[in-house]
Amino acid sequence: MSLLLLDTNILIHGARRSDVWAQIVSLCDPMLALPIPLVHIVSHGESLSFAEQRSWGEERRKQLTYLLGYFEMITIDPLDLDSYALLDSYSRRKGFRMGKNDLWIAAAAHTSGATIVTTDRDFDHLDGKFLQRLWIDPTTP
């Protein structure tokens, strides 16, 4: 399997140990994937904010901290800047306004060639043209 870049929602499902997390494990098992999957620094901050906003308890916070420490954290690479501009411009021309965190994740995937693993549809319009994404249906157990 190619290099994986985990979207923020994957981390949330992992910290919750949800049924969707079990589905993610059955499809790509990020805990055993080699090379170790990537987590963008914006997902790191976004997931911590999510936990804080929802007043997560100690157990879920520990699980999130474990996952954030387990996966390889990447930061904004200077090469991502051109990718960000390209993807933002393309998205707007197609009528999509991506969130800034999703744009950074998409730019990193475009630059690195990593496959985004996600449970949302925010990257659909880029899939196959600028990047690859593995969509996990969050409604299917």
From TrEMBL:
Protein's UniProt keywords contain Manganese: no
InterPro entries with a match to the protein in the record: PIN-like_dom_sf (IPR029060), PIN_dom (IPR002716), Type_II_TA_system_RNase (IPR050556)
Span of domain PIN: 5-128
GO function term, MF aspect, one: metal ion binding
SUPFAM superfamilies assigned to the protein according to its UniProt record, in alphabetical order: PIN domain-like (SSF88723)
Cofactor: Mg(2+)
Pfam families referenced in this protein's UniProt entry, alphabetically: PIN
Keyword Membrane: no
Transmembrane residue ranges: none
Record keywords, A-Z: Hydrolase, Magnesium, Metal-binding, Nuclease, Toxin-antitoxin system
Family statement: Belongs to the PINc/VapC protein family.
Name of this protein: Putative nucleic acid-binding protein
